[in-house]
Specification:
It is a single chain. By secondary structure, the protein is mainly alpha-helical. The protein is about 75% helix and about 0% strand. Among the domains are: about 100 residues; about 80 residues, no CATH class; about 70 residues, no CATH class. The chain has 17 helices and no strands. The longest helix has about 30 residues. It is elongated and about 105 Å long. The two termini are about 55 Å apart. The N terminus is likely disordered.
Length: about 375
C-alpha cells in the first residue's frame, strides 16, 4: 500500500533574477515605463486640486487598477519571465500599494541585488554543502560505519564521538550529514553534542540536521494518520503508524512534554491494533515499555509479565520487566528473574556491560 506521494519530485527552478545584459535592460525599460506612466497619473491627480483636469477621480482609480493589471500580466506571462519574475512582480506590487515610493524602493532593491548578488552564494549551493555528496572515499567509509553501527554494542558510537572531538571541520560536517541521512535514535546524542560545538558551522549544520530529522518524522506521521482516517481498520497501517511514532518518541531529539505526547499517541495506535490481533505479544510488550517510560508502572508490569511468559527469548523485554519490578519495589521477584536469566545475559554481547553487571548483582543477592 502506498503511503505517500513522492515529495522529492523536482520542480523547475525559477531564479529571482538572471543577471545578464539583456535582462538588466529589460528591467530598466520596465521600470522607466512604469515610472513615466505613474508620473503622468500623479500629474492628473494634482490637476484635480486645481480643477483643470479633464479626468475625474473615479477614472484615475480605474486607470491605476488597469495599469497595475497590465504590469502583473507582463511580469508573469510574457517572455520576460525567463529573466526571473520576482523583481518584475515586486515592482508591480509596490506600484499598486505604494505608488511612487514603491517604484523608487524597488529600484533600490534592484541596485542592491546587482551589487550583493556578485558575492552571495545560491541557497542550493549552501544547502548542498551542509549535506555534501557522499561520493568521496572518506564519506563512503564513514557511511559504511554508520550502517553497521549500533548504540547497543560496546563502543558503537565511539568512532563518531572521536570525529566530533578530534576531527577537522570537513570531517565533522561530513559525519553530521551522513548521520542525518542514516539517522537512528542512537545518533541523537552526537547531534545534541554537535549543537554545542564552539564552531559556528558545526552548530548551524547540527541544528539544521535536527530540524530536518524532526520534519521527516512529522511529515510521515501526518501521512500515516491521514491514511488511517480513510482506512481506520487496516492492521498493517495501524502497526506501522504506531511503530513510527514510537520511534520518534525515543529519537532523543524531543523535550519531555513532546516525547510523552508521542508515547501516548503510539500507545493509542498499538491498542487499536491489539483490538484486531489480541495475542500479538510484541505489541503488548511495546505498550508495556511505553507505559513504563510514562511512569505507569503497575500497568507496565502486568503487560511485560505477560510478554515474557510466552516470549522468553527476547531479553530486552526481560530488562523492561525487571525495571518495572524494581520501580514497584518487588525486589524478591526481581532477584528470582535475575537469577533465572543471568547466564543468558552473560553470553549475550548485545547489552552494555553495566546492564549485565547490574543483573549479576541482583542474581547474586539470593546467594
Amino acid at each position: 500500500m502506498s503511503t505517500s506521494t513522492d515529495i522529492s519530485d523536482k520542480k523547475t527552478h525559477i531564479p529571482i533574477f538572471v543577471v545578464n545584459r539583456s535582462c538588466i535592460l529589460k528591467f530598466l525599460l520596465f521600470f522607466t515605463v512604469t515610472l513615466l506612466i505613474h508620473l503622468i497619473m500623479l500629474n492628473e491627480m494634482f490637476k484635480l486640486e486645481t480643477t483643470t483636469s479633464t479626468i475625474t477621480g473615479g477614472w484615475l482609480i480605474i486607470m491605476h487598477v488597469v495599469f497595475v493589471t497590465v504590469l502583473v500580466t507582463i511580469a508573469y506571462y510574457s517572455k520576460w519571465s525567463s529573466c526571473g519574475r520576482a523583481l518584475f512582480l515586486l515592482l508591480a506590487g509596490t506600484t499598486a500599494m505604494l505608488g511612487l515610493v514603491g517604484i523608487i524602493g524597488t529600484f533600490f532593491v534592484f541596485i542592491l541585488f546587482l551589487s550583493y548578488g556578485k558575492d552571495s552564494r545560491p541557497f542550493d549551493d549552501w544547502y548542498a554543502e551542509l549535506f555534501p555528496d557522499e561520493s568521496r572515499q572518506y564519506s563512503e567509509e564513514l557511511a559504511d560505519k554508520l550502517r553497521i553501527s549500533t548504540a547497543d554494542t560496546p563502543g558503537g558510537l565511539s568512532p563518531f564521538k572521536d570525529i566530533l572531538a578530534f576531527g577537522n571541520q570537513s570531517q565533522k560536517l561530513s559525519m553530521i550529514a551522513l548521520i542525518t541521512g542514516h539517522f537512528k535514535p542512537a545518533f541523537a546524542s552526537i547531534l545534541q553534542e554537535a549543537v554545542n560545538s564552539p564552531d559556528n558551522a558545526i552548530r548551524v549544520q547540527a541544528a539544521t540536521a535536527i530540524s530536518h530529522v524532526e520534519n521527516e518524522y512529522t511529515k510521515k506521521s501526518l501521512v500515516y494518520e491521514k491514511q488511517i482516517l480513510e482506512d481506520p481498520h487496516n492492521p498493517e497501517l495501524l502497526i506501522t503508524t504506531a511503530k513510527h511514532i514510537d520511534e520518534y518518541a525515543f529519537s532523543g531529539l524531543l523535550d519531555d512534554l513532546s516525547a510523552t505526547t508521542n508515547r501516548n499517541k503510539a500507545i493509542g495506535y498499538y491498542k487499536r491494533y491489539l483490538e484486531l490481533d489480541k495475542e500479538d505479544l510484541q505489541t503488548i510488550s511495546s505498550i508495556g515499555r511505553l507505559l513504563l517510560k510514562n511512569g505507569q508502572i503497575a500497568e507496565a508490569e502486568e503487560l511485560l509479565k505477560k510478554s515474557i511468559t510466552f516470549d522468553k527469548d527476547d531479553l530486552k523485554i526481560v530488562t523492561w520487566y525487571m525495571d518495572a519490578l524494581y520501580q514497584n519495589g518487588k525486589y524478591d521477584l526481581l532477584n528470582e528473574i535475575a537469577e533465572k536469566y543471568v547466564d543468558r545475559f552473560i553470553k549475550n554481547t548485545d547489552f552494555p556491560i553495566k546492564v549485565i553487571q547490574s543483573i549479576q548483582m541482583w542474581a547474586n543477592s539470593l546467594k
